[in-house]
């Protein structure tokens, strides 16, 4: 972990900040309504724009936090390291840009759809994490990882299982977790990766054929 702290400072900051703020709201639940995304309020008061970012730094419970941070740990640190290999020191900023822009883009459909629903709140880093996950796959789709730390599984299969679960959960859950953001986060990650590294399309195709 020490290596990651030095080699991938942006991913390390995101990782630590997300865990720390999530743990804080676990102990201080009154902060949920202040930090969660509330499209109804944001549509009527643009000064609450910060909700788009703060909602991506907090989680509903331990399971939600562990699941997201495990995924980010598998792919976020490696992706930032690849960006640095491709673009030098600028890679850190490109990784930060991909994460933040994807977080915003993944929430836009929800902001539009729920702008007149005063009862809708959402939270979680899932949109940005899906962007990181699918961006990573553009470069290393067959990288192996351990599902639940035990079962070997290629990255591309993990990604589609993850996305499939999120789409299913979005239809079933009423838990304030913005499951809809997963799909749009994944699309944002792919689009931004192609924008930054157009050659990634050919590279991805070569990995499979």
Automatic annotation (TrEMBL):
It comes from the Bacteria. Residues 47-197 form the Peptidase S54 rhomboid domain. It is found in: Membrane. One of its GO terms (cellular component) is membrane. InterPro entries: Peptidase_S54_rhomboid_dom, Rhomboid-like_sf, Rhomboid_protease_S54. One of its GO terms (molecular function) is serine-type endopeptidase activity. One of its GO terms (biological process) is proteolysis. It is a multi-pass membrane protein. The chain crosses the membrane at residues 6-26, 65-83, 89-108, 120-139, 145-169, 181-199. Keywords: Hydrolase, Membrane, Protease, Transmembrane, Transmembrane helix. Belongs to the peptidase S54 family. This is Rhomboid family intramembrane serine protease. It comes from Sphingobacterium phlebotomi. The lineage of its organism: Bacteria, Pseudomonadati, Bacteroidota, Sphingobacteriia, Sphingobacteriales.
């Amino acid at each position: 972990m020490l290596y990651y702290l030095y080699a991938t400072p942006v991913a390390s900051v995101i990782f630590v900040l997300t865990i720390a703020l999530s743990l804080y709201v676990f102990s201080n639940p009154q902060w949920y309504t202040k930090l969660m995304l509330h499209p109804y309020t944001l549509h009527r008061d643009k000064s609450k724009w910060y909700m788009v970012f703060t909602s991506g730094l907090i989680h509903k419970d331990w399971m939600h936090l562990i699941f997201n941070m495990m995924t980010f740990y598998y792919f976020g640190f490696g992706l930032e390291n690849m960006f640095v290999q491709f673009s030098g020191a600028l890679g850190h900023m490109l990784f930060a840009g991909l994460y933040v822009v994807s977080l915003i883009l993944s929430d836009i459909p929800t902001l539009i759809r729920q702008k007149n629903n005063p009862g809708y709140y959402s939270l979680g880093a899932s949109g940005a994490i899906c962007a990181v996950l699918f961006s990573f796959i553009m470069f290393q789709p067959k990288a192996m990882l351990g599902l639940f730390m035990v079962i070997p599984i290629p990255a591309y299969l993990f990604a589609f299982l993850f996305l499939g679960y999120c789409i299913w959960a979005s239809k079933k859950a009423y838990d304030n977790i913005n499951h809809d953001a997963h799909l749009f986060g994944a699309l944002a990650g792919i689009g931004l990766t192609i924008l930054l590294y157009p050659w990634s399309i050919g590279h991805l195709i070569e990995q499979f054929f």
